[in-house]
Amino acid sequence: MSDLSEHMPFKSPVMPKALPASAEIQFHCYPGISCFNACCKQADVTLGPYDIIRLKDALGMGSREFLAKHTVPFQMDADGTPGVKLKTTDEGVCLLLDEEKGCKVYADRPTVCRYYPVALLNIKQTGQPEPVQQYSLVQEDHCKGHEENRKLRIEDYRIEQGCQEYDEYNRDWYQLILKKKSSGPTVGKPPQTSLNLFFMASYDLDSFRRFVLSDKFQNTYDLPQSLYKELEQEDLALLQFAYRFLRQVLFGERSIPEREGAWEKRVAQRQEIWELRREAERARRLREEDEKYQGDL
Ligand code: SF4
Ligand code: SF4
Fold first, then answer.
1. 89 and 220 fall within a common domain
2. 29 with 166, same domain?
3. Pairing between strand 132-137 and 118-124?
4. Which of 136, 152, 161, 193 has the most CB atoms at less than 10 Å from its CB?
5. Which ligand sits closest to the CA of 88?
């Protein structure tokens, strides 16, 4: 085993022991249990891209408004890869918690909340191209669900909690992060523009949609109009396209075909801009020199 990916999507203070899906756990959580809502009062919920789609739709917001009102940014690694967590009060209480009724977005709650107290681990085995999904059990004092007399396998708990759909739509994103992490110095620290693109494509789908539908993007990439139509209307299609785009941004994979000559055109346009800037700078300096001697001659 080469890597336990601790932030995807669950973050635990203890290094977990990896369990297979067939492992049995003893756990039951239900309204009326003595600790009801205790976990949501110490919330540390990292969000994946599909979590954000579900939450913004449930709250009737665009991605920008959702990010501003309900998330805080953090850095997922030493390269500054941006992550987002659900916002809490200063005491750690999730803003989406209703003290009496429980979670206000229960049907659309994020992956971490669905899995708890199970943690999802994406494990990269040495020599294996794809990460393997395994699990671990988190036992915290405040959670009394472990004392309930119900045993079930993790795979059945996943189905009960509706985790499969979330894993399916977030999977490529977990793999991107794991690939970046396991590539280490061979990929190196991405430039700030790539990190900004990572943030937009992963979390802010409304801005990513505007970016993809812009003339500049369409003049650069050679994609059918039918795909642009789909990306305009479908969040899930846009999300899959975002993962494709990020493989290009982070690893230089030619995952989206470019129009012939688009790269050369961009370089020429940049050179033109730099030339104009240099001209403007020369003119500014000459003006300053002129002003220094005005009245002396
Ligand atoms: S989103 Fe819902 S389940 Fe998750 S921490 Fe907040 S209130 Fe609890
Ligand atoms: S049993 Fe655990 S998961 Fe359920 S409400 Fe209590 S603390 Fe939260």
1. no
2. yes
3. antiparallel
4. 136
5. 1
